[in-house]
Amino acid sequence: MSDTNSNNNIQVDGEHYRKLVLLHSNDMHGDFLAENVDRNLVGGVAMLSGYINKVKEEEKNTLYCIAGDMFRGSVIDSEYKGISTIEIMNMLSPDVVTLGNHEVDYGVSHLLFLEKCAKFPIINANLHIRTNNARLFKPYMVKEIGGMKILFIGIITELVINQAKNDGLVGTFVNISEAAEEIGKICNAHNSLDIDFTVLLTHIGFEEDKKLAALLDPAWGVDVIIGGHSHTFLKEAEEVNNILIVQAGTGTDQIGRFDLIVDTDNNCVADYKWQSVPIDSEHCPVDEDIARLIDSYKNKTDAKYGRVVTRFNRKLTHPSRTQETSLGDLIADALKNSLGLDIMLLGSGSVRTEEMGPIVMLGNLTESFPYDDEVFMVKISGKQLKHMIKYTLRDEVWEGAHSEFYQYSEGLHMVYSRKDHEFKEFKFEGEDVADDRMFTVGLQLFHYNNMQSSFDITQEEILANAPRRTVTTSCREVIEEYLSEHQHLDVTEGDRLIIE
Question: I want to staple 196 with a disulfide (CB 3.0 to 4.6 A). Which of 148, 278, 394, 421 is the partner?
Fold first, then answer.
């Protein structure tokens, strides 16, 4: 493989060298609409489609793929439980798509229904039925274009697909090593087809992509990993074990583009250029057909979600999942106070927007907090609580591990030393937390189901204290009611969890 990422135009030189353009998106999260940024329209599926169509007119050997997480993040997606997304994606017409973790948010059975609605191929090599190991999706696809055979393989791992644990019969291969073995089996099985180029479509995160690449046998012929999940923005392609690894951030504000020269004699990359292309009105035409379809959905959702819920004193923000935030504090407080809990442990990933307010429409709330799951109340001792929260602050979390961070309701005050891996302070309502003190703690369904991987404690240990109790079947309804009844809310973030 050439290590060139030239800014010059790539030229085909010789009959065994062929041009291939790979366009790719990931983690679109229902980002259908363009936004005004400095008087310039940015993002949105209509301009994204316009750019893809433009490239396909200019470059005859062009493929467009999506590396997971088409769903979640918008009112249009949530209101129609992904059916609207599939219809919009049908018009966008990707050549191949793999699954992300949010594709199972509406349940595996609903995902299988959505797959039947899709007019594009969805591949995944390692979601299977536990009892007989039958795959739920086609594991790969061979696409023939411009005299080349391109093999696409879809991969996800259990660390990412934890949501599927709600469906007890569904499993995945457990880790990166087992995923690598499955890739080897598929590649070996297709060597006789004279595959010219092999692409892994993954949804496991950029750091895991690098680990996966290092495990792959060069004889298997994997050329490129197009990934998702970690929302990583890159300036250039990463290379590990002679495999190019890329990702295109999140949403529809940009698209990844590979211009490749494929050596069809040696079945490898002879030369390439990769870039992240901005999607904006200066550079991208609008696909008017998709724009009209999106507008039809938007008009319907605006009528339902266009009412004011509350007004904050100021805009509240959630700039990062791995820190205490004002918006996270407010939502945790709303659930704690409404449900009569001592403490609410709110998954940071439940908050999907970076800001909300000061005017909060129902649509703003739904986009910011799309997960409408149950909340369980459990009894937890002070000793268990310290252990659980300490586990969520372990070193690997700061290094990008697949682990949830939490927002904490009012009353808790913790000072944690990353250097010493210890709490310097751990107080509740101004008093040191004794090991034997019992608390009523709220956990969302997802976090209760994944208690051991999230908190390093089993459900059995918690249930030994007292039975769990469902305190709401709709946490978003609770939040909406709380916000409706409380106007001009504000919080002062930064004093519940202090990291030193």
Answer: 148
Distance (Å) of CA 155 to CA 98, 181, 201, 241, 394: 7, 11, 6, 18, 27
Q: According to DSSP H, which parts of 428-474 are helical? A: 445-449, 451-455, 459-463
Q: Which of 164-173, 241-250, 468-477 has the lowest mean pLDDT?
A: 164-173
Q: Pick from 263, 298, 333: which residue ends a domain?
A: 298
Task: Estimate the crossing angle of helix 45-58 against helix 83-92, to 10 degrees.
Answer: 30
Concatenating the DSSP letter of every residue in 297-319 gives: HHHHHHHHH-SEEEEBSS-EE--
Does residue 193 sit in the same domain as residue 342?
Answer: no
| All residues at 6 or more sequence positions from 262 whose CB lies less than 8 Å from its CB, including other chains | 17, 18, 19, 20, 148, 196, 197, 268, 269, 270
Which residue's structure tokens are 């918006």? Answer: 327
- pLDDT value, residue 40: 86
Total tally of structural domains belonging to the chain? 2
Q: What is the pLDDT of residues 320-379, one digit of tens each?
A: 989 999 999 999 999 999 999 999 999 998 999 999 999 999 999 999 998 888 999 999
pTM for the model: 0.83
C-alpha to C-alpha distances, 443 to 72, 248, 297, 411, nearest whole angstrom: 21, 33, 33, 17
Q: Report the alpha-carbon distance of residue 71 to residue 105 in Å, rounded.
A: 8
Cα–Cα distance, 351 to 367 (Å, whole number): 9
Residue 290 domain flag: yes
Q: Cis before residue 370, ω within 30 degrees of 0?
A: no
- Examine the domain organization and report whether 106 and 207 are in the same domain: yes
Question: Quick one: DSSP state of residue 165?
Answer: G
Q: Which two tokens stand for residue 290?
A: 């998709």
3-state secondary structure 374-390: CEEEEEEEHHHHHHHHH
Q: For 499, what's the count of Cα atoms within 13 Å in the CB-facing half-sphere?
A: 12
pLDDT at 443 over 70: yes
Whole-Å CA distances, 344 to 115, 130, 187: 36, 34, 47
pLDDT digits (tens, 9 = 90+) for 259-269: 999 999 999 99
Residues 336 and 459 both lie in one domain: yes
Reported as a single tens digit per residue, the pLDDT across 13-41 is 567 899 999 999 999 999 999 998 887 88
Domain range for 400 is 307-499
Q: Which two structure tokens, joined as six digits, stand for 138?
A: 């086609």
Terminal CA-to-CA distance of the chain, rounded, Å? 45
Are 283 and 324 part of one and the same domain? no
Q: What is the chain's mean pLDDT, rounded?
A: 91
